[in-house]
Amino acid sequence: MPPDLANQFNPLACQADFTYSMTPRTIKIQDTGKGKKYIADDLEAVLRKIEYWHQGSIARYRISYRNTQGTEHSIE
User: Fold this and answer.
1) pLDDT score for 46
2) Are 50 and 20 in contact (CB under 8 A)?
3) Strand partners for 74
4) What are phi and psi of 14, to 5 degrees?
5) How far is CA 50 from CA 20, 30, 69, in A?
6) pTM
7) Does residue 70 come out as left (phi exceeding 0), alpha (psi in the -120 to 50 range) or beta?
8) Hey, where are the domains in the chain?
9) Please, what is the end-to-end C-alpha distance for the chain in angstroms?
10) Closest CA to 39 of 1, 7, 4, 74
């Protein structure tokens, strides 16, 4: 996998650590709790990072995230 240039040029851009999975209609994000911030506190940067990795808009996806306690939240 090529280096993450967005993170290399701006290391403070996304401080949450997460994993995610995608289907043709949904994106599910899981907070690992290992980052400097939680997903809820760094959501915009997390979404930008996913868009960067996929080289396109994720606006058409149904997006949800699960925090470290296991509670799932939908994103509008």
Assistant:
1) 94
2) yes
3) 64
4) -135, 115
5) 9, 13, 22
6) 0.79
7) left
8) 5-67
9) 30
10) 74
User: Tokens for 51?
Assistant: 């868009």
What is the per-residue pLDDT for 38? 93
50: nearest Cα among 67, 28, 72: 28
The residue behind tokens 């996304």 is 14
CA distance 58 to 65: 14
Q: Cβ contacts of residue 6 below 8 Å, gap of 6+?
A: 13, 48, 49, 52
Q: Which two tokens stand for residue 12?
A: 């403070």
Give me the residue label for tokens 């080289």. 55
Mean pLDDT in order along the chain per 10 residues (76 residues): 56 84 96 92 92 91 93 89
